[in-house]
Design goal:
Shape of chain C: globular
Number of domains of chain C: 1
Number of strands of chain C: 4
Largest interface: A-B, 33 and 39 residues
CATH architecture of the largest domain in chain B: 3-Layer(aba) Sandwich
Oligomer: heterotrimer
Largest sheet of chain B: 7 strands, mixed
Number of strands of chain B: 15
Radius of gyration of chain B: 20 Å
Number of helices of chain C: 2
Number of domains of chain B: 2
CATH class of chain C: Alpha Beta
Chains: A alpha/beta (248), B alpha/beta (351), C alpha+beta (77)
Structural class of chain B: alpha/beta
Order of helices and strands of chain B: EHEHEHEHEHEHEHEEHEEHEEHEHEH
Helix content of chain C: 10-25%
CATH superfamily of the largest domain in chain B: Thiamin diphosphate (ThDP)-binding fold, Pyr/PP domains
CATH class of the largest domain in chain B: Alpha Beta
CATH architecture of chain C: 2-Layer Sandwich
Strand order of the largest sheet of chain C: 1-4
Number of helices of chain B: 12
Distance between the termini of chain B: 47 Å
């Protein structure tokens, strides 16, 4: 018998604290698989965010920093400038990256900082119990948009990958993927691997936006949540490569 | 002996380089901007990194990253910028990371002014950020002392794994004085086994200030408290001037202490036995040194470029044994020696 | 011959694995409750499993290990 699927080495053998069906666990595993496949466990340094993934430093078996809310790209910048030959990644949610930490991610991208950011977009604040995020869809009900996100009041959700892709130069990479079924999980892993390789080859800043679920705060079963992601999030957040073109 | 004439901000920057600092992250703000400008040229010459961050918030978090990764690292700013850094400073202290933070104080509150002030004493010594932590705070009164204390600051930061603040003001940053960079004998930097360098050959390292279990956080904070206690016992620094027979003792730090030193001379010329107590470490406040010079002191006049902040520590140190008074100017105004002398005379009359 | 192994103690009962199995053999074992209080996912018809790994890919909690039998005549790897 050949083992074709098991826990990756770069993932600690612990139970995640995430709610049942939360896709953070899938994304963690994909990152760990990529670290194993690229054989970079011993030179990778990760940065955990504030939000549901705050304990990510307990889950990846690599050197880790815990960052203040939204500051992971700045912390990763500091690490990478000290250890340019190491591989530095940050793991951030949508409140962390696209709200309180928007300046840090924009400028890390604008500098072409050679770091990799895994940006988990589940359209809501999970850890604090389901408040409106900068990526909450129009009309989506949350605990701070009880009648649904109103454009007049709160504006439109931010498309981070498109925005970053529009303001930086070549060498930088922005891709949006999803983890709602095995086919897309395969594509997500490929994008994460390419984002790490982009850093290793010294080309520039890489961000992979991963559309993710929050069954608990969306008020859905895990299976319904995947369906909601596919039906509601994909039309507003199209999957694809938003990297800047040559000559931008 | 090779003395060079340098501006305070630039001399302080060069001192950091001599101390082995190779990483600087900052953001422009008057009156400290010459410091990052100097390092933007100097760091590339020595294989270091100067990076102008998008904000003070980003800069201090880059410091957090670089320090956790094992580097000697510094940032600098002035009052409003330090307020922005406060979050990061709390995290750095919580995660027990060494770094040096320079604050060339300007007038506040709010946008205040770009003129010199000492209104950030409370922020520097009593907190600034959230939670139970302390910074080692050093207050130079000359460009030479700024150089010497900056070099010491990096060693102290590494020794205690705690941020150290150099607290100056716009005058210190802007004025030019001759300085000498004394060669340090030991240029070997300490080994940092806790730093994140990639986990090759060891278990993973985690840089963190989060302890979700109350018992664990209490243990952690108590351990920090032990460290702060050690600093209080070992790191108090002060200078005294004509205190042996002093009846009126002036207490002042940094720029204001220079004004007061002159006022002491002027008072002595008028037959008033005045002396000066100058804290060099603001935290820990040099209470032992102050208690030792109280012998014949009838009253302590604290002089600051603030509404009266250090005077609270003076009062705590003397604990009611000696009457105290205060003289201060704010808003970027600097007290003159003559003003201080007048205050000494008036204070003497009520004692 | 166990081709798909569930670490039932780690299972949180989310059921995502059950939706992606092309052979529809993954089910929630309602006769069991793990220490977390969930009915864990399981497979009893191991012979039906085609070792595609979809269930493991979909699992957010790394509960599932998948093996593929060696081809006939070859030794186990």
């Amino acid at each position: 018998m050949k083992v074709i699927f098991e826990k990756p080495k770069s993932l600690e053998d612990v139970t995640f604290h995430y709610c049942p069906g939360c896709t953070h666990g899938i994304i963690h595993r994909l990152i760990a698989e990529v670290i194993d496949e690229l054989e970079i466990q011993e030179k990778t340094i990760g940065v955990a965010p504030v939000g549901c993934a705050v304990l990510a430093y307990d889950y990846f078996d690599v050197d880790m920093h815990e960052a203040a809310h939204g500051r992971a790209p700045a912390v990763a910048t500091g690490i990478k400038r000290v250890h340019p030959k190491n591989v530095v990644f940050a793991y951030q949610g949508d409140g962390d990256l696209a709200s309180i930490g928007m300046a840090e991610v924009v400028h890390a991208a604008a500098r072409g900082e050679k770091i990799t950011i895994i940006f988990v977009n589940n359209a809501i604040y999970g850890m604090t119990g389901g408040q409106m995020a900068p990526t909450t869809l129009v009309g989506q009900v949350t605990n701070t948009s009880p009648t649904g996100r109103d454009v007049e009041h709160s504006g439109y959700p931010i498309r981070v990958s498109e925005m970053l892709g529009s303001l930086v130069g070549p060498g930088n990479s922005m891709k949006r993927v999803s983890v709602h079924d095995p086919k897309h999980i395969g594509q997500a892993k490929k994008a994460i691997k390419e984002a790490f390789i982009n850093q290793i080859e010294g080309k520039g800043f890489s961000l992979v936006e991963v559309l993710s679920t929050c069954p608990t705060n969306w008020g859905k079963t895990p299976v319904e949540a995947l369906k909601w992601l596919e039906e509601k999030m994909l039309p507003y957040y199209p999957l694809g490569d938003f990297s800047p073109k040559e000559g931008v | 002996m090779n003395k060079v004439l340098m501006k305070g901000n630039e001399a302080l920057a060069e001192a950091a380089v001599r101390a082995g600092c190779r990483y600087f992250f900052g953001y422009p703000i008057t009156p400290q901007t010459e410091l990052p400008q100097y390092l933007s040229k100097r760091m590339p010459e020595i294989g270091g990194v100067f990076l102008q961050a998008e904000s003070e918030i980003a800069a201090i978090n880059m410091v957090y990253g670089a320090s956790g990764a094992g580097a000697r690292v510094m940032t600098s700013s002035s009052s409003p910028g330090i307020s922005l850094k406060a979050e990061g400073i709390s995290y750095i202290a919580g995660a027990e990371l060494p770094c040096v933070i320079v604050n060339m104080m300007r007038g506040g509150p709010g946008l205040g002014t770009i003129q010199p002030a000492q209104g950030d004493y409370f922020q520097a010594t009593k907190g600034g950020g959230h939670g139970d932590y302390k910074l080692l705070v050093l207050a130079p009164a000359s460009v030479q002392e700024a150089v010497d204390l900056t070099i010491q600051a990096f060693d102290l930061a590494d020794k205690y794994r705690n941020p150290v603040m150099i607290l100056g003001d716009g005058i210190l940053g802007q004025m030019m004085e001759p300085v000498e960079f004394k060669l340090t004998e030991n240029n070997e930097l300490p080994v940092k086994e806790w730093a994140t360098t990639g986990k090759k050959g060891r278990k993973k390292n985690i840089i963190n200030s989060l302890y979700l279990q109350a018992e664990k956080l209490e243990q952690h904070v108590n351990r920090l408290a032990d460290k702060f206690g050690e600093m209080e016992a070992k790191e108090q620094k002060a200078e005294t001037y004509l205190t042996d027979d002093a009846e009126i003792l002036l207490a002042a730090y940094g720029t204001t202490s220079r004004v007061c030193r002159k006022a002491v001379d002027m008072a002595r010329e008028e037959g008033i036995k005045a002396g000066l107590f100058r804290p060099i470490s603001l935290w820990p406040f040099p209470e032992y040194a102050l208690q030792q010079v109280l012998g014949r002191v009838k009253g302590i006049l604290t002089v600051e470029m603030s509404l009266g902040q250090m005077i609270e520590d003076v009062r705590l140190a003397v604990n009611g044994k000696v009457p105290t008074d205060f003289y201060g100017r704010v808003g970027g105004m600097v007290p003159t020696s003559r003003d201080v002398l007048e205050k000494i005379v008036a204070f003497r009359e009520v004692l | 011959m166990q081709k798909v192994i569930f670490n039932e103690e780690k299972c949180k009962g989310c059921e995502l694995c059950t939706t992606v199995c092309p052979k529809k053999i993954v089910y929630m074992d309602e006769k069991k409750i793990n220490s977390k209080g969930f009915h864990p996912a399981t497979v009893t018809q191991q012979e039906e499993c085609i070792s595609c790994g979809f269930c493991a890919m979909m699992c957010p909690d790394v509960v599932i290990e998948v093996r593929r039998p060696s081809k006939e005549g070859k030794k186990d790897e």
